[in-house]
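Bench notes, afternoon.
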Amino acid sequence: MHKRFVIFVLALAIGFSIAPANAFLGPASIPAAFNQLLKVHALSNPAMILIDETTGEIVYARNASSQRKPASVTKILSATATLEYLDPQSSFETKAYLSADSKVLIIQGSLDPWMSTNNVVAKKMHRTSLPVLASKSMSALKAANHGSLRNIKVEYSQLYTQDLVNLKAYWAARGFKPTIKAVSSKALTAAEAEPVFSSKSPTIAEILDFTLLWSDNLLAERLARLASSAAGHPANDKGIALTFNELLNHFNINTSKLIIADGSGLSKKNRVTAQIIGQLLVKVRSDEKLSLLYASLPVSGVSGTLKDRFITTAPNAVGLVHAKTGTLSGDVTLAGYVESRDREYVFVTLADEIAHGTVAEDKARAAIDRMLGRIAAPNINAQISSGSTTP
């Protein structure tokens, strides 16, 4: 106990000793301080913007209208489109049936983005398991056909191409090579017979929460395509680009410098500006329909892709930053919100000109963390107010 007390006192003393060098920055002090902090080689001329979320005032900007690679910050666009065009409380069902003559396996999908090729992962996360679907289907077919899997047909609707490829691979590895044909959902429904398999995904809201928290590329891509289809555009990369442009125009955000090649951010062809993302994040915070986006973002030093950040680089910012991370080779990005005493800032940092390699990436992340650490501070008055009780 005494040892813990000594460590606590020592940490407190160290904290006080460095406080002057890392003093909290108010809005008026930010531009000069950030200009000095951005001289570090680690960030190599990034694009950045800092906006007072309440007033919309741009507190700091550097290369804010420059086209940069957003990496997984692209997922902010995908998430916004998902909430704008899809019902967050809806879910996806996948069912399998045997036809009356037991020679046709019918798979009725719904473009479930939550499917998993790993049964252990599927069980743990309540995901639709492709191996279980494949296995149960084979067992049912064998039981209905005296152990034979010859002359079997599979008719399916609304399955992703990659999921179908995985099903085929699973069956082929076990000597089952049926004739497979895509048909309309209406035709499948009319032909339903003996149920073999049924699975229901979590809600879109839950799927989106996981997508942002852990920066899941496949889920982001699939959600963006589903949103594109719901918006009346093709469910492909071109459709996603049209959907994102339409969405931003709806929010009166200029898209002339927006280039979109996918919904996950994996493509190095994507281009955004810090200003576009910053303006979108301001809109997100004021729109109740989009509130889930903020709630699903990783929190500094606490959750998701930010769980291990800020703890040593800017410990005072732990728990005060909600943001989407992004990483590509030579590209480190971060965009979101930072609590700063009596206000909240929207921030976007796109550092896509750094050296390649994990060492350079780690240095860039640390530099971004330290910058946000200079403005991050809890709203003490709000905490006291929310924690107080009526006499």
